[in-house]
Specification:
Layout: E1 3-8, H1 15-27, E2 30-35, H2 43-57, E3 61-66, E4 69-74
Parallel strand pairs: 1-2
Antiparallel strand pairs: 2-4, 3-4
């Protein structure tokens, strides 16, 4: 399993960030997203980031939150 790493900073989730994520998923099956302190270090913010990313990427992705890290995984089929 290959994994890539990306960071969310003070600008949050931008179009450029989403394009970066999509390009990482072309080569990797999962991406680890570190949420920096400047992006807001609360569990609620991280949950909101996770939901927003999944909403914008589509149904082929799942997320798991561990501390201040969001793990995204891409599946072959859509997840219901």
């Amino acid at each position: 399993m290959t994994q890539s790493e990306v960071q969310i900073g003070k600008k949050g989730i931008t179009d450029n960030f989403l394009e970066t994520l999509k390009s990482h998923f072309k080569k990797h099956s999962s991406v680890r997203i570190n949420v920096l302190k400047s992006a807001g270090h609360t569990k609620e913010n991280i949950r909101n980031y996770s939901e927003e990313i999944l909403e914008k990427l589509g149904k082929k992705y799942t997320a798991r939150i561990l501390g201040f890290i969001i793990f995204l995984k891409k599946w072959r089929k859509e997840i219901r």
